[in-house]
Amino acid sequence: MQESILVIGDHESAPQEVMKAVAEVYASVFSTTSLPEGISFIEKEEPSVVVLTFQQVEAAERAYLTLYRLSTKIHQLPHRTILLCAAADAPKAYDRCLQNIFDDYLVDKPLQDGHRLLWAIHQAISAAHERRMEGGSGATRQALTTVEQALIVVEHALRDGEGLRDDSIKIHELLGEEMEAKFVGLASLLGKPEYADVAVVKDERLLGDALGKYAVDDIRSAVGRAGCELGRRIVEWRDNVDTQRQTLDKSRQALRRLPARQGSPSILVVEDNDEYRATLIDMLGERGYSVTATGDGMRALALLNRRTFDLILMDYQMPGIDGIETIRLATQAHGSGTPPVIMLTGFGTKGLVKASLGAGAVDFILKPVRTELLFRKIARRLGTPIVAKEVTSSQEGGP
């Protein structure tokens, strides 16, 4: 597979300088100062590495998040980011990497060590490749979820179809009986004086017997045949649905036999309150979960772009975009591949709960979070047993 690299910056000389150094080793390298051109390259070439060379770290962050918002592919694309910065901006670059906005940074302005940059790109390509391989387990997990959801729908349809067949038989039996009774009653009706100009009935009993025989022999038979045909079609439909159910069940069994991903379940915590975020990190860490945390929605979206998570704990009220909008954007970007989201908030209004679930959250917990409730819900969403603390402490963990 030929790896492609995007180099993007805010002044012409820097991207060209980087491209000159990188193009000696990698054939597919594109440099630009235009975000639309960068997006076009991403859509077409799906780069493994994005190198950002901007005069300010903040400008690089804004540019990357713009790429993330406007590109239709970067959300699902396993790629790595390298930030080139001046020495004075190294602390900021380091901080952005700690926050998982960028994957790596180099103090390389002006570009003096091209080999160091090539080595960073080589490492980034290797990491992107591992990310692609890791994504397989996430895809397997999502495929299993999709199959199980489809099975639920099919099984409900089978039950409904069985009930429909029984109802159809009963309705046609009642219809036949009702029509027979109406025909028998017709003899009595025609014998009344007001119908004398219509028909002359000499013997109501004989006419009633004749009409009753006609209703039994012809009308009820016709109704019965229609009922049998409808029942046959319902049975045929049920058999087809059952065949699909068996196919889905085989797929589920095959997916379950695939080896599970090694390592602890990974949880993304999105919480803007520093103290509470630290509490959640400690609580989850004590139970052996792999935890990544951030304080705002846009950074959470950037993380979802580059890593696979098993679950998200999402605060509602945050600066910038709130938790509901973050879920909506994540679902828009990743579709059914979005990890399950549990919303955490101190606002327990019915409207907020409805909006959260409507945006794609799978559960809702009010703050302050009760520890055991949190871990019960995490275990249920991950499909794992409730995990006990790994290390016994003299202090209680969590609120």
Structural write-up:
The structure is a single chain. The chain is α/β, with parallel strands linked by helices. It folds into 3 domains: 4-112, Response regulator (Rossmann fold); 146-257; 266-382, Rossmann fold (3-Layer(aba) Sandwich). It is built from 11 helices and 10 strands. It has helices spanning 13-22, 35-45, 57-70, 90-98, 114-190, 204-257, 274-286, 297-306, 323-334, 350-359, 371-382; strands at residues 4-9, 28-32, 49-53, 80-85, 104-107, 266-270, 290-294, 311-315, 341-345, 363-366. The strands form 2 sheets. A 5-stranded parallel sheet has the order 2-1-3-4-5, sandwiched between helices. Strands 7-6-8-9-10 form a 5-stranded parallel sheet, sandwiched between helices. Helix 4 links the parallel strand 4 (80-85) and strand 5. Helix 2 packs across helix 3 (57-70). The chain is elongated and about 120 Å long.
